[in-house]
């Protein structure tokens, strides 16, 4: 629930505190406020505080706290103090005066994807256009293919154990190649590993024995120079050879 201007703020002597902030900019003017402490504890909120112009409370001169996580416990009873350094939103010092403070807070919880507190937690529902997209049951799993520019699969080689190496012809900002178990039903669970492209865009051919993938890497794109790399269970890419002709790679 969004709470607007409902923080209990203690602004005693704010003008004088700003005068002192000029001498001690690390501390600044203390702003003490009260968050709800009712119900089960601990409880986390995201708090935003802004200083307003002395003559016009609708004019925000500095947002000095933006979406900061504050956790209410039985010990602190929801009472917090933050500090304004007396600077405006452009980083310029403001003269001592009786500034106002506005605040909002929203309930927050930790998102397991990034470990940060958010007031809105997204849930994965469905992705279109790719068989390896996660399902709703993979809410904490990234897609196997994620990028902003790609060309389709260029080559696939299946090992004797039914595990295949997949290589995209061109891909930016994502993983390439992939180790895929063809014995499993079509879906995200097929992807055993997705290896970093290591700064190279793609290739035309891939070798795979069911455990190790060996694709070429082109640098720069469309040049005749190739760098062959092997990818295996260690998830580390190791150089194999350079300038070998396409479709001639040995992997061990």
Provide a compact summary of the structure.
The protein has one helix at 14-23, and strands at 2-4, 8-10, 29-34, 43-52, 60-72, 79-84, 100-107, 109-110, 117-118, 149-158, 163-172, 175-181, 191-196, 207-208, 213-214, 216-218, 226-231, 237-242.
Task: List the SSEs and their pairings.
Layout: E1 2-4, E2 8-10, H1 14-23, E3 29-34, E4 43-52, E5 60-72, E6 79-84, E7 100-107, E8 109-110, E9 117-118, E10 149-158, E11 163-172, E12 175-181, E13 191-196, E14 207-208, E15 213-214, E16 216-218, E17 226-231, E18 237-242
Antiparallel strand pairs: 1-7, 2-3, 3-6, 4-5, 4-7, 8-9, 10-11, 11-12, 12-13, 14-15, 16-17, 17-18
Shape: elongated
> What share of the residues does DSSP label as strand, in percent?
35-45%
Q: Helix count, per DSSP?
A: 1
**Total separate domains:** 2
CATH topology description of the largest domain: Immunoglobulin-like
Helical content class: under 10%
Structural account:
The chain contains one helix and 18 strands. The protein is mainly β and 252 residues long. The protein has two domains: 2-118, Sandwich (Immunoglobulin-like); 136-242. The strands form six sheets. A four-stranded antiparallel beta sheet has the order 1-7-4-5, with no helix packed on it. A hairpin with a 2-residue loop joins strand 11 (163-172) and strand 12. The longest helix has 10 residues, at 14-23. The model is unreliable at 1-22, 219-224 and 235-252 (pLDDT under 50).
Characteristic key phrases:
42% strand; single chain; disordered N terminus; mainly beta; four-stranded antiparallel sheet; 2 domains
